[in-house]
Amino acid sequence: MAIYQKLGLAVAVAGMAVALTGCGTPPVPLTKNFAESSQYKVRAAGHWDAMSRDVAARTRDNLARSGFNADAPLYVALPPNASAFDNGFRDLLITRLIDAGAKVQAVPSQQLEVTYNAQVVKTAGHANVGGYSDEPHSSSSNTEVILTTTVTNNGMFVSRESDVYYLANVDVPLFAKSTHFRPVNMKVVGQ
Fold first, then answer.
1. How many domains in the chain?
2. Is residue 23 part of a domain?
3. pLDDT-based confidence at residue 136 (cuts at 50, 70, 90)
4. I want to staple 126 with a disulfide (CB 3.0 to 4.6 A). Which of 68, 74, 140, 141 is the partner?
5. How many other C-beta atoms are found inside a 10 Å radius of the C-beta of residue 169?
6. pLDDT digits over 102-125, tens only?
7. For the chain, percent helix, then strand, then coil, each to nearest 5?
8. Could you list the residue range(s) of the whole structural domain that residue 73 is in?
């Protein structure tokens, strides 16, 4: 009986030690995956056009909700070091805004300014993207693009929206910012 009493006492002491150390330490959060969702994959200029139609419609709706008249003039700025996507998307966005009845100015002046940024994000993992692929018999991509469109008025945010799309790995160069080098005159001095 003494052995069982000593064993019981040891278990009780160990249990108390665990309980006491657990009291001061908050529980560690468990990992959890997001619910399954879907997103579009950008594969062609036609997809850029669909993106521009969506951005133009939502921008017009956001401006109306913010109290701006439908005829408030807009200027769509080209991002610095524009990529092939930036150039094409700007042209498409201007066209779709005009199609929706917006007054789009050719040069900046006193109007609402529309800017956008395409940020390419590469992840280590692969995701199933519904049969679209970079290579035959593959349906994965580890690259996405975050497209954020902003409208400002005198330095104040009026409208802002962000969308995320899958991007085929082979199409990443279309989203790469151009690197224009400015010539610099240097004086060579000899000894």
1. 1
2. no
3. very low
4. 140
5. 15
6. 999 999 887 899 999 999 999 886
7. 35, 25, 40
8. 41-175
Amino acid identity at 123 = T
Q: In this structure, which amino acid lies at residue 59?
A: T
User: CATH number, domain at 136?
Assistant: 3.30.160
Is residue 15 situated within a structural domain? no
What DSSP character marks residue 2? Answer: H
Residue 11: inside a domain, yes or no? Answer: no
In a domain, 7, yes or no: no
Rounded to whole angstroms, the Cα distance separating 187 from 191 reads: 13
Rounded to the nearest 10°, the torsion over CA 161, 164, 168, 171 is: 20
CA 149, CA 146: separation in Å to the nearest integer? 10
Total-model pTM: 0.72
With CA atoms as reference, report the closest residue to 40 among 166, 172, 177. Answer: 166
